[in-house]
Amino acid sequence: MKESVAIVGSGVSGLTAAYLLRETHEITLFESDNRFGGHAHTHSVDSQRIDSGFIVHNERTYPNLIRIFSELNIPTQVTEMTMSIDCAGCGLQYVGGRGAKGILAKPIKLLDPRFVKMLFDVPRFYKQARKLLKEDLDSSVTWGQFLSENKFSNYFIKHYAIPVVSCVWSSGDGDSLQYPAKHLFEFLNHHGMLELGNSPIWKTVVGGSNTYVEAIVKLIPDARKEKVTSVIRYEDYVEVNGARFDRVIIATHADSALEILKDVTSEERANLADITYSRNKTVLHKDASVLPKSTKARASWNYKMQDCRKESGQVLVSYWMNLLMNLKANSDYVVTLNGEIPAEKVIATMQYEHPVFTVKAVNAAAFLTKIWRNMVKLVKGKVLHQRRTPLKHGLKFINYMWLVDLDEPQKKLLPKDHFGGEAKSMREAVTYFAESRGELVDSSDKLFAIASARTNGYVFNPLSVYWCLKSDGQVRWAILEIHNTYGDRHAHLLHPDEKGNSQIDKEFYVSPFFTIDGEYRTRTFFNDRDVVLSVNLYQNGTQVFSASFTGEQMEASIKNRFVAYLRTPFSTLQAMARIRAHGIWLWLRRLPVVPRPAHPKQSGML
Q1: What are the tens digits of pLDDT across the range 243-281?
Q2: Among 136, 138, 311, 486, which is least packed by CB within 10 angstroms?
Q3: The whole model's pTM is what?
Q4: How far from each other are the two terminal CA atoms of the chain, in whole angstroms?
């Protein structure tokens, strides 16, 4: 039985998800607008199909989209990707991307020392940006701060630096200067815009971008023009507009996601709110007067400013669709953002929203990606126990454990089964123990845990691990919790290195055949795919015992959970039975038994 997935939003993200999942899942696609496609918006005009939103792409930076186009036989064509700057204040006009003839669209400007200096500042900027990328530029530095600190002229800022950002992200002057410099340089470098002659080959879709939208929607039997007003998440399923699905993909803008998520956490609310948008009036029209008067100064993208001495709150840019889409027409077709167009020239008017890239927005997007990627995972792995002396004996078996985000609602790991068993939540239990050892949890930290869950009402966890991750993903500290077969438990605070390795003294009676003295050398490591847990006991410098769990994460889908239950329906009981059988085998071979001391409740245990 296929999992059911609700996809909210039919922009490029939602359509891509629907296309890739269509054969393995039951897809329901929701769209609140009266058309599918989001910014992929094509208009039929005078026997022409003209885009007004998503227009260009290239093979270097859109490999997944290119693959979908290939599989769907979507025809594309090469286009010219150039940008003109037209300043009514000082009279500057030039075109980038068309060589010397474009830069010198008005040769007289060579007599202006500010223009000549700008020409030298562009390669200086390229060199500095590439250098800073290699040196790992501080992600909190904005585009405006970078320009100020490196003493770029106001002329360069107004006629090059701001237009580069404004044209791509449809943002005003102020928003453009707040763009995180590191993020911008990575984007420009990826698109070949930090050196001359390295631009990718740009293309447009023949017949307009809606061609691929229509092709994908035809493959989705349940594609609805229905506004989603409510998404509620439960442990095993989600409800979308009251209907039950196994999973949901919210492929909308952040503000829309915040509006429809009815169980949003305080962390999610704060980070979604940090991602803001600019609203831009967009007009498809036939008024060529918005383009530069000189044909030599016209480009695919045409940025216009009324006065370079003043700040503009909104971008004014016009896309010359005849050039971009190779239109065979006698009229000029133009898409203009935030311009005033005579009514008789207007073909269609739209409102598009574009993300405003700030340091807070970029950090919020990274944080949301991290917390939504790691909520609850099933981990299938191999357990190995190996006694090395004086008798050699071992056991191995397959086991399933749960990797959970303790900052999110979950019912897999219960506080009654861990630490002192009295905490109200797993997070409270972990935090209380860490604080008792002098470790605090920062507000931006994330807590994760891996352990076995109750199966048929029973659980036995020889080994449980808890991690505190800093905002950069590095481990601040970890806790190793050990349970023996007598019902006792003991926790150790760890400070693992980057590979998860640490050393601690043995303080707990685990086996009747080992004394309490010795040293544990442990590894507690996990990433987006793997989990490696190991405890190696050394006594008098010799390794005498090792236990490990090595596994790979998988989605906690109904299918995977069902398979895990069928394979190991009594997994925790089996683990207990195997360990006890191992002990009996050693006892029958007359291995000396170490008396079990009393183990009072450990401090820091709720």
Answers
A1: 999 889 999 999 999 999 999 988 899 999 999 999 999
A2: 136
A3: 0.68
A4: 42
